[in-house]
Amino acid sequence: MKNFTPRKPRTTSLSMKGIGTLPLSYLVVLAICGCVIAAGFLLAARQHFMSMDLGMKNSKLRKQLEDLETEQRRLVLAREVALSPKEITRTARDLGFVDTLEQSLAVPVPVVNVSAPETPKAAVVKTSAPAGVPVLTKTAYQRPVPAVAKSEPAKKADAKKPSRNG
Asked: Which of 19, 93, 101, 104 could be bridged to 127 by S-S, CB 3.0 to 4.6 A?
């Protein structure tokens, strides 16, 4: 048993009514919303392309930093090699310097004077060297004796002056 619900009759005035023109306010609101959406898409596209550009610049700078760090390591290594004792010795020989071990050295020899032991003197020993090479001489010097202080006469002169307070 089926139970049928009767249909409600529609009013003819609503069904016969046609769709009319939209009011002007709806069109203005619709245009404004369209402009806001389009501006949002343009701003998003602008940010996207700016981030792509910054990514490329960042990549270039990272590569440049890596190249500079590699160059710095190479220069530090070159400095270490140039400052090594063997390299300094080789460069000095190339410039014409002579190693002190290769030629005989002048060694200071103190001369002992029997008559005056309180003032030892140093002797200068010169050795022969190959022609064109200057002779290296070493001398030994005695330390200077400290000068006698001349403050005693100055103190006596100060003692004769009357003081300002008394």
From this structure: 104
Q: What is the DSSP string of 10-45?
A: PPHHHHHPPP-PPPHHHHHHHHHHHHHHHHHHHHHH
At residue 16's C-alpha, the angle toward residues 11 and 19, to 5°, is: 125
Residues, the chain, total?
166
- Residue 123's H or E segment, with its range, is strand 121-123
* Strand ranges, E, within 66-127: 109-111, 121-123
What is the per-residue pLDDT for 153?
52
Tell me whether strands 121-123 and 109-111 are parallel, antiparallel or unpaired: antiparallel
Amino acid at 68: L
Query: Using one digit for the tens of pLDDT, what is the confidence trace for 103-162?
Result: 555 555 565 555 655 555 555 455 555 565 555 555 555 566 666 655 555 545 555 555
- H or E stretch including 8? none
